[in-house]
Specification:
It contains 15 helices and 10 strands. Strands 1-2-10-7-8-9 form a 6-stranded mixed β-sheet, with helices on both faces. The site of ligand F0G has 22 residues, from helix 4, helix 9 and helix 13.
């Protein structure tokens, strides 16, 4: 009999680094182990000697990196006897919460900003049977409400303020180091609540056997550090949409606006931690306009065959600019996280391709003439 090699998710893969015991019932959909794809065509046009990779988190079960945190958070919620979970969301967290709650057989309540969530994400929350509560307000208002409600009702918050979320998400850093055989020099991410940049830093730190003040999980008594695999950590670079960039302004922003609805956040929940990440890693925050974000999304789809959602493309948009200016020097290995799949937001994709479809009569000559006109 051949040995079974069925992949059963990131908790199983990294169980020695995660808060589970042998008897914990894992709630998993086979998340994690996403591809680290080396970009080929885009770097060739840059004229710069860099190794540029994207970690394609859109290939997780619900199409975003949120599944990493959600498998861990729901596993622990169920272990602790919780019958319901709740989150505020710009869309992806609600999709993941809905799916993992379905898997666990518990109820998910999700608060989403009316009219500001991408179509695919809304479809996911609804089809998985979550109780979808649309609020006349933005993500930040929803987050405040969730905290108030959870203080009074028997529901577990599964936003990234739930410490198990970051524990699950840190595994993305482990996977990158395992794939490259070392830590990259730079890691670029989109920043909304700043949970993901913090989680990556925790993962890199644990794998390097180094401490970080950005992690509060073990209260200074870390059970995972100190057995370094790599010995070094990357410089962390966080990008925000110009209309939703509290880390650039240096203070919270009240009416965030961006086409990248996933990161339409003005009051980041991991504010202090993300500043620590920047400080400890020697990194920086920067911003990109919606125009630059959409151009990077299109570049990735057209030149590399990789379709990510707008919020994800900001990591590549920012990295390319920093490579061009030399802020990221030649000879560097750079990883950009593509946080969510492009199919999450079909409306924005189609809106970008006006004139991209030709309608002709159903006749051979008509089709043939289009082909002849478009052969390069
Ligand atoms: N990219 C995508 C596709 C996201 O959905 C999010 C966050 C981020 C980046 C930013 O990550 O908040 O950890 O800094 N989405 C949350 C949600 C807010 O509700 O789905 P962060």
């Amino acid at each position: 009999m051949p040995e079974s090699k069925r992949y059963t998710g990131l908790i199983e893969r990294y169980r020695a680094w995660l808060p589970v015991t042998d008897s914990t019932r894992m709630v998993s959909l086979g998340e994690g182990s996403t591809p680290l794809i080396r970009l080929e065509n885009i770097p060739a046009t840059l004229g710069k000697d860099v190794e540029l990779y994207v970690k394609y988190e859109g290939l997780n079960p619900t199409g975003s990196f949120k599944d990493r945190g959600m498998t861990m958070a729901v596993t622990r919620a169920v272990a602790e006897g919780s019958r319901a979970i709740i989150c505020a969301s710009t869309g992806n967290t609600s999709a993941a919460a809905a799916a993992y709650a379905a898997r666990a057989g518990i109820t998910a309540f999700v608060l989403i900003p009316e009219g500001k969530i991408a179509l695919g994400k809304l479809a996911q929350a609804m089809i998985h049977g979550a109780v979808v509560i649309q609020i006349r307000g933005n993500f930040d208002a929803g987050m405040a409400l969730v905290k108030e409600v959870a203080a009074q009702a028997p529901v577990t918050i599964v936003n990234s303020i739930n410490p198990y979320r970051l524990q699950g998400q840190k595994t993305a850093a482990f996977e990158i180091v395992d794939a490259l055989g070392r830590a990259p020099d730079f890691h670029c991410l989109p920043v909304g609540n700043a949970g993901n940049i913090t989680a990556h830093w925790i993962g890199y730190s644990e794998y390097a056997g180094m401490e970080t003040a950005a992690c509060a999980f073990c209260d200074g008594d870390c059970s995972y550090g100190g057995r370094g695999v790599t010995g070094r950590r990357p410089v962390m670079v966080g990008f925000q949409a110009a209309g939703a960039a509290p880390f650039l302004r240096g203070h919270m922003v009240d009416n965030p606006e961006t086409v990248a609805t996933a990161i339409r956040i003005g009051h980041p929940q991991s504010w202090d931690r993300a500043w620590k990440v920047r400080e400890e890693s020697g990194g920086w925050f920067d911003e990109c306009t919606d125009e630059v974000i959409l151009a990077a999304q299109k570049l990735l789809t057209e030149r590399e065959g990789i379709f990510c959602e707008p919020a994800s493309a900001i990591s590549v948009a920012g990295a390319l600019r920093d490579i061009q200016t030399g802020r990221i020097p030649e000879g560097s290995t750079v990883v950009c996280t593509l946080t969510g799949h492009g199919l999450k937001d079909p409306d924005t994709a189609i809106r970008q391709c006006q004139g991209g479809m030709l309608t002709v009569d159903a006749r051979l000559e008509a089709v043939q003439s289009v082909i002849m006109d478009n052969l390069s």
